[in-house]
């Protein structure tokens, strides 16, 4: 599932492909991924418009168009964007007629500034759990998000206030709450807490009471996001597990060599080093 770094990687791609470009034609092949779920109206509202900015908050993207229309995008579990400067029949994602990208749900035919030739940006989503939401103002899914650790940085005072109220919740679950910090998902939370040497089961409010630990977590989140973004930029993510402890049950902790353990916390799989991650109560 895409987390903050993957969505930021997508934002940077879309910024290159779409910012300043005119949407010559927009085709929604599947109403299940668009809101409102009406392909003709969706296309009509976007066609002819120019993309002014491509922004991101947490796992949401916002494309602002030149008439103030907004297109919000959530990649769900399996969504991504592909770009092609023309039709390439050798691309395995294309069907036999060379026209349709496999699992393409929405196609944007765009013309970049000072160009005449169209390029194609496809929204691809095998399982269709992503969403492309058309709106004339910001939607609640966007406005309810907490600060984004990459775009806004982590304000320790704000974080402390938000965590202090959570008497019963674990620090890991609290970090994954999108109103606390936008974009931190399961993997980023696991990696950050390992880096900060804190057991994910520690109480959120107990951690909030220790400013030094909070600062450590904030630094660890920045470190985790930066590492993942570097891997994505190098094109190495996905080839093998690029993470330090996520998905590595039974393997030695990279810091102290103790075998890593795995358990469920709030319904999500969690990896922890039983030796060097301290439980804060
Ligand atoms: Zn360890």
Task: Please write out the topology.
Elements: H1 4-18, E1 22-28, E2 34-35, H2 39-46, E3 51-57, E4 60-65, E5 70-74, E6 80-84, E7 104-111, E8 119-124, E9 131-135, H3 140-143, H4 156-164, H5 171-176, H6 186-195, H7 204-208, H8 211-234, E10 261-265, E11 268-272
Parallel strand pairs: 2-9
Antiparallel strand pairs: 1-7, 3-4, 4-5, 5-9, 6-8, 7-8, 10-11
The site of zinc ion (ZN) has 7 residues, from loops.
Give a concise summary.
It contains 8 helices and 11 strands. The chain has 281 residues and is α+β, with helices and mostly antiparallel strands.
Which key phrases capture this entry?
alpha+beta, Helicase, Ruva Protein, domain 3, five-stranded mixed beta sheet, four-stranded antiparallel beta sheet, elongated, binds zinc ion
Walk me through this protein's architecture.
- Helices cover 29% and strands 22% of the residues.
- The protein has 281 residues and is α+β, with helices and mostly antiparallel strands.
- The chain folds into two domains: 4-143, N-terminal domain of MutM-like DNA repair proteins; 156-272, Helicase, Ruva Protein, domain 3, CATH 1.10.8.50.
- The strands form three sheets. It has a five-stranded mixed β-sheet, covered by helices on one side. Strands 1-7-8-6 form a four-stranded antiparallel β-sheet.
- Strand 4 and strand 5 (70-74) form a beta hairpin.
- Helix 1 crosses helix 8 (211-234).
- The longest helix has 24 residues, at 211-234.
- The radius of gyration is 21 Å and the shape is elongated.
- The mean pLDDT is 92.
- The structure holds zinc ion.
């Amino acid at each position: 599932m895409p987390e903050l770094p993957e969505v930021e990687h997508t934002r940077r791609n879309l910024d290159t492909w779409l910012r300043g470009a005119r949407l010559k034609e927009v085709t929604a092949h599947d109403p299940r991924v668009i809101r409102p779920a009406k392909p003709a109206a969706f296309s009509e509202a976007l066609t002819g418009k120019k993309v002014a900015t491509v922004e991101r908050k947490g796992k949401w993207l916002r494309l602002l168009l030149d008439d103030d229309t907004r297109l919000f995008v959530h990649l769900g579990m399996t969504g991504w964007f592909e770009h092609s400067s023309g039709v390439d029949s050798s691309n395995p994602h294309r069907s036999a007629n060379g026209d349709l990208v496999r699992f393409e749900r929405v196609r944007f035919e765009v013309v970049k500034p000072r160009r005449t030739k169209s390029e194609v940006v496809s929204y691809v989503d095998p399982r269709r759990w992503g969403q492309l939401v058309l709106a004339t103002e910001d939607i609640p899914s966007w406005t309810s998000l907490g600060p984004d650790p990459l775009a806004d940085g982590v304000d320790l005072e704000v974080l402390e206030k938000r965590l202090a109220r959570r008497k019963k919740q674990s620090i890991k679950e609290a970090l994954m709450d999108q109103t606390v910090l936008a974009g931190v998902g399961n993997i980023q939370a696991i990696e950050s807490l390992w880096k900060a040497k804190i057991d994910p089961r520690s109480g959120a409010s107990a951690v909030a009471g220790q400013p030094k630990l909070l600062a450590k977590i904030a630094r660890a989140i920045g470190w985790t996001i930066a590492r993942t973004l570097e891997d994505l930029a190098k094109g190495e993510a996905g080839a093998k597990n690029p993470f330090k402890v996520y998905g590595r049950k039974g393997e030695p902790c990279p810091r102290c060599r103790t075998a890593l353990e795995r358990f469920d916390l709030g319904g999500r799989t969690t990896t922890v080093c039983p030796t060097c991650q301290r439980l804060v109560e």
